[in-house]
Amino acid sequence: MRPTVHDIAAEAGVSLATVDRVLNARVGVRAETRERVQAAVTRLGYVRDVAAANLAKSRSYAIRFILPDGDNPFMHALKAHVLQVGDPATRLGGLERLAVSLDPVPSLDAVALAAALDRAGEQRPAGIAVVAVDAPEVEAAIGRLTARGIPVATLVSDLPASGRRHFAGIDNIAAGRTAGGLMRRFLSGRSGPVAVIAGSLTLRDHRERLSGFADVLAQGAQALNLLPVLEGGDDPVRVEALAGRLIAEVPDLAGIYSLGAGDQGLIRALSAAPERRPQAVLLHELSPHTRQALEAGLVDAVLAQDPGHIARSAVRVLRAFADGTSFDPAQERIRIDIFLKDNLPPG
Amino acid sequence: MRPTVHDIAAEAGVSLATVDRVLNARVGVRAETRERVQAAVTRLGYVRDVAAANLAKSRSYAIRFILPDGDNPFMHALKAHVLQVGDPATRLGGLERLAVSLDPVPSLDAVALAAALDRAGEQRPAGIAVVAVDAPEVEAAIGRLTARGIPVATLVSDLPASGRRHFAGIDNIAAGRTAGGLMRRFLSGRSGPVAVIAGSLTLRDHRERLSGFADVLAQGAQALNLLPVLEGGDDPVRVEALAGRLIAEVPDLAGIYSLGAGDQGLIRALSAAPERRPQAVLLHELSPHTRQALEAGLVDAVLAQDPGHIARSAVRVLRAFADGTSFDPAQERIRIDIFLKDNLPPG
DNA sequence: CAGATTTTGATTTACGTATCTCAGAATCTG
DNA sequence: CAGATTCTGAGATACGTAAATCAAAATCTG
């Protein structure tokens, strides 16, 4: 059997109260006594039963997610996973005393986001997870939370200078480089111009993906020629117009890399003129539309990050910060997934 | 506050004892009373506090992992992750009352494996996780465990006919198809023979990968010519000899797919004659050697399954079976990871 | 309707830890 | 050495659930 606090008390020859004072770092214990207890702890290999401790404390972890509104399918999926993690009927929700709440904010509105962060902080939650927008107001709001001791994790889009404690998302420069590596190999041998469609270059993650991608395309023996970046505002309608013109006007187009959202528009443009489809088409994030396009051969590969993993990871990490415990960085690393038609997860 | 059993009792107008009888499906409750209690449960949205329940039951989950000995780097990594999951100082180990033990068995020895399974079953563990060998003895042993009500999960290599409750590993046919898709695209335009190096075709996962790969290569406009499969017994020395001869004797070799282990030998052979390296080299599993080869450009892509995920997933799933609760299939799905030089996880 | 049987209530103890109180012991201060 | 101060001990209570006992009530059987 695992040793309990009672065993520690007996082993150290002190009372339960003293063991408690040492274990919970309370004042009023002589240094010598403290050491006796700690020696007993290591000798017996005691580890606190976290479940019992939380029961006794009737502690619960309030975690607030602040996510953008709107019709972005990835954000929708993320939202669904957050709700699922917080569901007390699930393992995480039930066993770990979570109280997850979800605050929607208008997409890409820095002022509203900063206000939502301040409001969320008022409730003194155990942690806050937020999809950051790259703006000084947001940076300052996160800084205020951190200063008040509330751990903040950024999701998907990072803001390293804000003082956030953790980022749950992919390395977007590496994602861009990965897209570049795939593009080079998928076009091995041949040359021709390559187009990039972004949402907006004011978005940090889009800028980063672009820089990684451009980097790799410029390297190596035969350099691929990158066309000027098109910005579609993550809007399917605008993306469709841009992609349609692109395909019509650049006859020898070798590849397209869509690094933002609005891919439904790109897919429509591609299926409207299948005979002019470039040799390699890459885009980001799995959704019903992108899955279908991959299966139909309209798209060659999809880069993705797992929204379920992001939601679970953010909760685990914020909990660990709240408790002052550690976590496994390898488990919390969000992978850059590459999906081809053949390794698509079911569903 | 979340409702407790006391609230249920008050709401239903019955005693605590009766609530307990209903919740834990004990006998001696009239159908009508049972329904009153269940109505109160749904009305108040009661969910059992699993942590408190486990504390009261002083339940702990003994989970045995049966893993092959030997110098396979993937199995080493898997072993390390299993030990980490079982460590009571970690979240999973601490919060979830796990008692994980690890039984090593000689690699590829069906008789020893069957004996180990029987021995593990004697202790009546909450669950058993095993890397299956495709043999009737093993199938029978797993069947006996299942018959005794002990849930078994196969890891990495499956044995569907055995009656195992769960498989934690990748779909190897899909992995082979994925490799085929990458090979086709990496060789786009050009033709030439493609070689496959397997460990042994008596291994189910190797056979499956081969069949998926061959399938994809045969499809499509320009068929790639598959050379007869080489079997290297997962042994670096033998693989090196095979690969060396292959590179020397097939001048127009377009690609190599190594679907088993022993890749250190392949990498040595490739670096010995870098000028004759085929255009596309694919292999399985990340290890210090394969990482380095990817970074050096000797290998183009690595297909992988995350051993940490496999270990954690097996524990979660076996726990759920032991409790009769459900789990999230999407979370437990082991992905076919594709790593290029650019999306390699650090470390 | 008496007696047997089934169902229900009331109460207690336990799980491992946290937190509090109050008294007593040990140590320090002047 | 008295008095103040700091440490320590013993005990109680709580967290939410499980599991048991025993008595009382309700229902069924013949």
TrEMBL record, chains A, B:
Gene3D superfamilies in the cross-refs: 3.40.50.2300, lambda repressor-like DNA-binding domains
Annotated InterPro entries: HTH_LacI, Lambda_DNA-bd_dom_sf, Peripla_BP_I, SBP_2_dom
Ranges annotated as spanning the membrane: none
One Pfam assignment: Peripla_BP_4
PROSITE patterns given in the database record: HTH_LACI_1, HTH_LACI_2
An example molecular function term from Gene Ontology annotations: transcription cis-regulatory region binding
Residue ranges annotated for the HTH lacI-type domain, each copy included: 3-57
Keywords: DNA-binding, Transcription, Transcription regulation
Protein name: LacI family transcriptional regulator
